[in-house]
């Protein structure tokens, strides 16, 4: 069902997708800087679960609704864009996304939920799953649903692992950054701008692409 040559090509492609800069890995890095490995892992687990939910929706055919219904697509798009724009606004104004103040530390449950919502409310991963995973699926190799779910689980697991590593390694920079207030402010502003740019890119997203 999963020929080695297909599996290797798939994992290589997923690796490139996961390490590409985006709001999800930025969240993991921010949590790693602010709260260490555990928070980075919680944010990463949320993003990984989001990928799995997108895969499940695609497998059940729900993602096709986003491609065929303009109203449903716009509703998801506006929700995702609004959430990312809000995260960006908060990062710029409160400068608390990357913070070493005990008062700004977030419960791991909230960190996980933020990572999950950032992924689930973004229609890009859903459309990507619909366009990407089926290229590695073949009716001749068995159940299409099983193949979709297994490939999606691999995608989700790699996402969680790599984001955790990125966030965990970034925790080692916390000491350096905490001694440089200007760099800390600049990091929050840069993160905020990145989130807002991601939100605006969602608004420009066309469901036909």
What order do the helices and strands come in, and which of them pair?
Elements: H1 4-19, H2 23-35, H3 37-60, H4 63-68, H5 70-93, H6 108-120, H7 123-132, H8 144-170, H9 174-178, H10 181-203
Helix pairs in contact: 1-8, 2-3, 2-6, 2-8, 3-6, 3-7, 3-8, 5-10
Structure characterization notes:
The chain is mainly α and 209 residues long. The chain has one domain. It has ten helices and no strands. α1 crosses α8, α2 packs parallel to α8 and α3 runs parallel beside α6.
Provide a short characterization of the protein structure.
With 209 residues, the protein is mainly α.
Q: What brief labels describe this structure?
A:
209 residues, mainly alpha, 10 helices, 77% helix, globular
């Amino acid at each position: 069902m999963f020929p080695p040559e297909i599996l290797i090509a798939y994992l290589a492609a997923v690796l490139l997708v996961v390490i590409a800069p985006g709001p999800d890995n930025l969240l993991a890095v921010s949590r790693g800087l602010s709260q260490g490995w555990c928070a980075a892992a919680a944010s990463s687990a949320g993003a990984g679960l989001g990928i799995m939910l997108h895969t499940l929706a695609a497998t059940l055919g729900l993602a096709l609704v986003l491609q065929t219904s303009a109203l449903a697509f716009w509703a998801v798009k506006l929700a995702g864009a609004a959430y990312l724009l809000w995260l960006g606004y908060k990062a710029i104004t409160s400068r608390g996304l990357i913070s070493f103040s005990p008062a700004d530390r977030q419960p791991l449950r909230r960190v996980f939920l933020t990572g999950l919502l950032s992924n689930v409310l973004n229609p890009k991963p859903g459309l990507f799953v619909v366009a990407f995973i089926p290229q590695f699926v073949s009716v001749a190799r068995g159940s299409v649903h099983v193949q979709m779910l297994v490939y999606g689980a691999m995608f989700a697991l790699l996402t969680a692992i790599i984001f955790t590593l990125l966030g965990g390694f970034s925790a080692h920079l916390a000491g350096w950054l905490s001694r440089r207030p200007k760099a800390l402010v600049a990091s929050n502003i840069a993160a905020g701008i990145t989130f807002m740019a991601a939100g605006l890119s969602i608004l420009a997203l066309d469901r036909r692409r």
